[in-house]
Write a sequence for this structure.
């Protein structure tokens, strides 16, 4: 199980966000609820965008919310909130966002495998379409982690 890059409980599908801050709160809230971060980390992710702009919108329709490793991070992890209605984050090239990932790391290196595997997954346009339309969090978990059913 240590090979998983995202935990089932860190996936929320078809949620509604009022604005980009709320979208980050949804992804960050999953990390907090499941013991990866304190609430402070979600605030730090929002502050990073307020300070640095929408750099977290990494591809069309995809945001990777994160902040620096900090005491607010308990363990490294990833979350995903898929949005019913796309939200603008202020990125000219990549708005509106439908997929909001939350990433937290305890240091500058231990999240690199997660990022690498996530990028590899998102590099396939079919996978992105699947995430945007899937209604079963278990299916999303299986797909992202490349888990074979019954193995």
């Amino acid at each position: 199980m240590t090979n998983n890059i995202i935990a089932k409980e860190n996936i929320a599908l078809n949620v509604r966000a009022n604005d980009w801050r709320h979208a980050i709160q949804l992804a960050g809230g999953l990390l907090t609820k499941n013991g990866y971060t304190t609430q402070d980390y979600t605030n730090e992710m929002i502050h990073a965008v307020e300070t640095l702009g929408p750099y977290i919108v990494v591809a069309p329709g995809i945001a990777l919310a994160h902040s620096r490793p900090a005491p607010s991070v308990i363990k490294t992890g990833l979350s995903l909130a898929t949005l019913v209605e796309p939200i603008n984050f202020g990125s000219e090239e990549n708005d509106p966002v439908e997929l909001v990932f939350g990433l937290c790391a305890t240091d500058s290196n231990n999240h690199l495998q997660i990022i690498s595997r996530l990028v590899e997954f998102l590099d396939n346009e079919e996978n992105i379409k699947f995430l945007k339309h899937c209604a079963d969090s278990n299916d999303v978990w299986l797909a992202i982690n490349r888990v074979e059913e019954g193995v």
Q: What stands out?
A: The longest strand covers residues 77-87.
